């Protein structure tokens, strides 16, 4: 493809003439989707205090400096790499994933790009000294295998670099806070997304630690945004909540999940149960029980195929009779009730006894580094003892590594969910995953994703 036809397809930045964000996301996507392309690493570089340049030297000088920086950065990259303009003084880069010692290699690249920006620039017979912050994300660290997710991860890393002071470099790690939630979605846009099938569940497997068998799938909403691609819920749940659209979301999720269960059954794939997240607003709706019963009926799905996840913080409030009635009626009908984010919401044993719970989901914050941290081990051991005494199961959330998985087995935890098993995935790839997983878990155990 020639340079000019590329230009026609991808709009360029008016100042630097570099491609823009959409091109970067597209390139990062190809690393996950196209088997002929190498996986990509994403770097985001922002000149510190860039807006001050316009104040001191004028807009023209600022533009010239930005163009020059873009050219310098581009000249340092390979032809297969991509550099884009993201904002004034801010560049995004996609490079091929290195074969070995990924982190070190990318750190070196980040620091070379950063030093190029710190090289003094001549301006009005003086020398200008700039600094820049860099955030990057390796593809295997992306919360999801999408360009958008990888880019957001690099943005989170940049935020954390900037918080550490000018001239810092940070790599994305899973513990990092998600990028500040974008709440600029209008109610009309959100409603349209809900009504036109743009908001869909992705599915994350839950497995039995002892046998490795698939015990269920948790449905996690994703927004297939027409311009931005797949977006994780952290970026739009606050806006949906504000717009009072959470109930509509759970109707959509329930419908999609029951459709998914019927599709798996038809293909002969064993998915014992599917979990849906319910907010406290939905649980306070006196019609919730009837709505769920009606949907199960019309899809002809038996209630034990549905698990409802209720946050520990909701149960800890404990006073709302509608919530108690809803949960207990759903449980009596045969649905499973899981207590989500356990350990973060201060529910007492009395609260837990008041509800007919099947399982607690131990929050990820207790699971991270459990293989090496004795405090984590003690906490989880205590939680598991409590669960045993209450005769409820326990699932460990956010299990990321083989070490954590093995330690949880030693401690006697029964169920696990997390990146070590699989990341959330769209419906169309679940069949293949379930089949592959079944053939591996029938042959050997433990079953872990080959990271
Ligand atoms: P949650 O219910 O605690 O879901 C688990 C979150 O952890 C998910 O984030 C999942 O992608 C992520 N996760 C799973 N395994 C790992 C791991 O090994 N490491 C790390 N670092 N993260 C892991 P996600 O999908 O972004 O969802 C965030 C939260 O949004 C959920 O937390 C849930 O509270 C809420 N949510 C998601 N879907 C829905 C929905 O349909 N309705 C409602 N009301 N809330 C939802
Ligand atoms: Ca959940
Ligand atoms: Ca959780």
3D architecture notes:
With 451 residues, the protein is of the alpha/beta class. The protein folds into 2 domains: 3-171, Alpha-Beta Plaits (2-Layer Sandwich); 187-443, Alpha-Beta Barrel (TIM Barrel), CATH 3.20.20. Helices cover 45% and strands 20% of the residues. It contains 18 helices and 16 strands. The strands form 3 sheets. The protein has an 8-stranded mixed barrel with strand order 8-9-11-12-13-14-15-16, surrounded by 5 helices. Helix 9 packs parallel to helix 11 (288-299). It is elongated. The two termini are 35 Å apart.
Structural topology:
Layout: H1 3-9, H2 21-33, E1 40-47, H3 50-57, H4 59-76, E2 82-87, E3 90-96, H5 102-118, E4 121-123, E5 126-128, E6 132-137, H6 147-163, E7 169-171, H7 187-195, E8 199-208, E9 214-225, E10 229-231, H8 237-242, H9 246-266, E11 274-278, H10 280-283, H11 288-299, E12 306-311, H12 312-317, H13 321-333, E13 336-342, H14 349-354, E14 359-362, H15 364-367, H16 374-389, E15 393-396, H17 402-411, E16 415-416, H18 427-443
Parallel strand pairs: 6-7, 9-11, 11-12, 12-13, 13-14, 14-15, 15-16
Antiparallel strand pairs: 1-3, 1-6, 2-3, 4-5, 8-9, 8-16, 9-10
The structure holds ligand C2E and calcium ion (2 copies).
The site of one calcium ion has 4 residues, from loops.
CATH architecture annotation of the largest domain: Alpha-Beta Barrel
- Give the low-pLDDT segments: 1-7
Shape: elongated
Average pLDDT for all residues: 89
Total DSSP helices: 18
Q: How many domains, as an integer? A: 2
CATH class designation of the largest domain: Alpha Beta
Number of strands: 16
Q: Determine Rg (CA atoms, Å).
A: 25 Å
The secondary-structure class comes to alpha/beta
State the strand order across the main sheet.
8-9-11-12-13-14-15-16
Query: What ligand molecules are bound, each kind once?
Result: ligand C2E, calcium ion
Q: How far from one another are the termini?
A: 35 Å
Name given to the CATH homologous superfamily of the largest domain: EAL domain
